Every structure is written in structure tokens, then in C-alpha cells.
Amino acid sequence: MTATRTTPLPLELGPNLIDHYYRGGDRIAKLRGIRTTSDHQPEEWLAATVSRHGEETIGLARTTGGDLLRDLVAADHAAWVGPDHAAARDRSDLGILVKLLDPRTRLPVHVHPDRAFATSHLDCPYGKTEAWFILDAEPGCAVYLGWKADVDPDELARRREAQDSEWMLSRMNRLEVSPGMAVLVPAGQVHAIDAGIFLAEVQEPTDFSIVLEWSITTSTRDQSHLGIGFDAVMPAVSTSRLDPARLDFAALLDTSRPDGLVRLSDLALRGEAEVDLMPAAAAAYFTLRHAAPEADARIPVTAGFAVVLVLSGSGSITGTDGATVGVSAGNVFAVPHAFGDWTVSGDVHLLIAGPGVGWPATLRNADGTGVDGTDAAGTAT
Q1: Helix (H) or strand (E) holding 45
Q2: Which CATH number do you get for residue 229?
Q3: Can you give the pTM of this predicted structure?
Q4: Which neighbouring-strand residues pair with 274?
Q5: Peptide linkage before 83 cis (omega within 30 of 0)
Q6: Beta-carbon neighbour count of residue 132 at 10 Å?
């Protein structure tokens, strides 16, 4: 008699392209080995258990068998995130959202709220700190992040109402990007992305955006302030200078710099251990690592929920009990905590994303209690 397996295996996820107002998606299709149905599918949401803002199901990921990942996670949350981290507030919460973005149109100047604002105004313990990991970029392409000098709030409001794109972009830090670069985007900071950049985005699991430049989108002014009005939402937008030194080349080289927002990695390198791709400050919100084993090596990965994107090659991921799942270029997997510690082997390059260090104990409700069932002092209730 064959024993029934009780430890859950990593689940392969099907295509989850998002129709959007902006063009793009050809590089997503090439990487994933799939077809787009229009030239306006520039995003794919990977292992998403949250939907687009204001929508019921758009954005939710499905397994290749057609099951909603959200439902599978909710049915056995502890198996997915670990018995010590099963958040009480939302049994489908995985603590992270991963996307592929492939814009062929510049994305607008916009901002995401932080956790404090989201908790008090949007009834959500998550804001939307995010990070971009550059997979490909046409020469000269750049991202824009933060103001180069303090901006007067009243002047910003006037320029927003006038939809003065040139004024906004000219006052923002501009950073040319290249493959292997990670850029951390703290909540509250204005940002925009040039056309021609292909990236993996890791972020807090929300879809909250305050759009300051709606005129280059199909949205209206009334769809750009999270439904609470610009007077209420603008305090979430920083008008303070973001020190350009946090984006300079020295920050790229000093990976331990606590205030640095950029990091540069070489995805061609192989080794015997994972490589952290994120600036140090990202760890409170999410993790992103690269695994590319040397010949005959096995790279160990500690148990915990993970989103795996196979960038190239083929290989396998193997649990401590010997259960093995084959992986190849373009595959996306959701790996449950209950799979245990695992290893990566083969001629393969993987991105491995997970929730932030200490999650979900770092999340608070509006009354100060923890979403994991602790009180305001962190004691279990």
C-alpha cells in the first residue's frame, strides 16, 4: 500500500495577466511562455490573494488546475504561512504581492499610502511600500522617485489640479536603471516609471494608489484619491526632499547602508547560497532572493511561504522528505510553509519572494492590537 502524502507540495500557478489602460505585456508573455490577448496586458499578478482596488476577482491568482489560490490559502492558512504566523484578520493573507510589470507607456506620477494612513483611513493594516527589481531596460530608461527639494503642499495641489506633468517630473529624482538593479519605493514617496522597463515588483498586498497625474491614464480625478477626496488623502503624500544620495552609485555598492534605496546584483552569478537582492530597509516589508546553483550544488531555502519565478533554465526544488517538483523557465510556484525547508538544484535561475521579517506581528489594527491576535503590547490574547 502506498502511503498518502500529507505535506503539501508547491503549486504551479497559471497565467494571470491584467488588462490595463497602458500598453505592454510582450516581455511577460515571452518570459512566461504564454500569449497575450491584447497589447494592453502589461501586468501579471503572481500568487495574488488580493484583487484590484474596487474589484471582486480581477487580480486573483489561480493554480494551473483552476483553483483560486485565495481559497486554498483560506482553507488551511497555517499550512501556507506557518502555525506561528497565521494572521487572525484575514485567513487568505500571505503578507506579500508580487507582480511583473512591462510598460510600453510611461506610468503616471503617483503615491502609495503607508501603514499608519491605511490603518486609520482605509481600514487596512497594510500600506503599499514596494520595490522594483529590473529584469530588462531599454538604454536610457529611468525611474523617478521622491522630490529633489521640499515641495510646497499648496503648490503641489495647484500643479495636480492643472495636471502639470512637466512640473512634477522635473522636481523628482531621476535614476537610470539597468538589469539587476533593485529600487525600494517607500510608501508616501512620489514615483513614476518610464516606458521600456521590464521589472518584477514586490510589495505589500494592497492596490492603494493616489494618482497625481491621472491625465495620462484613463482614470478621472474622482478615481484618483482612493474614494476619500484629495483633501483627506494628500497628507499621505510626502512633500519633503528625498536625499538623492540614497539613490546614488555609492548606495548601490554599500548593501548594508540602512537608508540606501538601491542595490545592484549580477544575476549571471552562480553559487551555493541564496543572494539577497533588496536594500536592507526592505526586509521589514518583503524579501526577494536569487538562487542559481553551481554545478552539482543544492541551494538551501528555509521554510516559509514563498513565490518562486523561474527566470531561466530548468531544475528542481526538493523538500526535506525527498518530494521533488521540476521547474523550468517561465514557471511560477506558490510554496507553502508546510513544504518545510527545501533545496534548489539544476541549471536554473530563480527569484524567491516572501513576506517581511517578523510578519505578521509587525501589523497593527486601528485600535493598536495585532492582526495576529496579540494585544497592543504584543501579548497573545
Answers
A1: strand 43-46
A2: 2.60.120.10
A3: 0.95
A4: none
A5: no
A6: 24
